[in-house]
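Example 4.3 (complexes with small molecules)
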Amino acid sequence: MPLSARPEIRPATGKLGILTPGMGAVATTFMAGVEAIRRGISKPIGSLTQMGTIRLGKRTEGRSPLIKEFVPLAGLDQIVFGGWDLFPDDAYLAATKAGVLSREHLGEVKDFLSTIKPMTPVFDQEYVKKLTATHAKKGKSKADLAEQVQDDIKRFKADNGCDRLVMVWCGSTEVYRSPGAVHASLAAFEKGLAESDPEIAPSQIYAYAALKCGVPYANGAPNLTVDTPALLELAKAKGVAVTGKDFKTGQTLMKTILAPGFKARLLGVEGWYSTNILGNRDGEVLDDPESFKSKEVSKLGSLEHIFQPHLYPDLYGHMAHVVRINYYPPRGDNKEGWDNIDIFGWMGYPMQIKVNFLCRDSILAAPIVLDLALFMDLAQRCGMSGIQEWLSFYWKSPQTAPGLYPEHDLFIQLMKLKNTLRHLRGEELITHLGAEYYD
Ligand SMILES: NC(=O)c1ccc[n+]([C@@H]2O[C@H](COP(=O)([O-])OP(=O)(O)OC[C@H]3O[C@@H](n4cnc5c(N)ncnc54)[C@H](O)[C@@H]3O)[C@@H](O)[C@H]2O)c1
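Answer. The structure with nicotinamide-adenine-dinucleotide bound is encoded below.
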């Protein structure tokens, strides 16, 4: 159904299964946090679906319900978790090794996390050079592997009595690939699966299996997955929602907060140099130049689109934008990012801004996984299939219709998201014109 038509919303009854290929730092921090919130130990900080409000009608009306009360989202008590990983550790052990949450916090949800055991993954060393799987599916072909993932999905749904499922990729960043002939159509892709075409990545096998089962798919990493004609064709044919890609967490979040401000004030930018040190498994994977390339392409896009140098050549036409990531084990998940921004103002006088962000990657990513899962489930219950551009808010590289440039400005993304929710509920869209207050 096109978004322009206001859909009926199916109620969020029954259980919602959230499946994550990859049960590392992000996925286990997400699972532990949801359980801690359910037990009243934590608050859902950083989650728009849980803490955000939405203004309705005029500013004089005083109507600002919580988003979760305005649109029918699955409740946290309705969620069950499942996933796949290269390592057979249950979610408690994996979270302990990831080292994001304290022993004290993990201890409070240990009984729950220990019950979540990863299913056997689809893995191909060519796509993640730095990790070696301790267990992986074996199959006659990639088509066979896709069948096995579909079996996993169906079994998980039946065993857990789920009404609906969503899949959020939380697996490692795969090596950079651009779409090839095998991704050009669904027919080519299915032929490629049967022939085990080397250009089909594991993430694409999970995505294919999810879409075949009618399960919405969100891509948390920067690698190529549902942003291919083949998988978009399948999403459309099956009426399934897709979105991506690459969770917008640390440095890019800051960029998409700061850059719209500079542009709003017509301040020029001569250069923006970003570097990071991090020491988690994600950092180790990104230490491989081919996986880093996927990340670099994803990270570089945001400023280019916000500054629109073709419209503002005097301000942004010669900007140098450099991004570096260095693997530095002592830091673990507690990444440190530095940004040096060379800006210029009236008559071209230069100024500098330094940002030093001591961030916690998975703490920023976990609420994004929750929101995406709940909003993708909502989209699916509204019959909204294909690319969900209204969820650009969550992505470093928002997926859009082919030929349409992505919107990276965090504030425009939020307005778009909230207006989509207003539209779904038949409320007036907010344009901020405000003329009625002065008539
Ligand atoms: N943490 C953030 O802020 C952030 C932001 C944007 C994107 N991401 C992306 O999210 C993903 C997860 O990040 P993380 O910090 O949890 O990394 P992580 O290394 O802790 O976890 C990833 C897990 O995926 C597993 N994996 C790899 N290939 C797999 C496959 N084919 N099937 C099943 N499991 C597989 C690995 O064994 C690992 O346990 C990464 O791709 C990362 O780049 C993270």
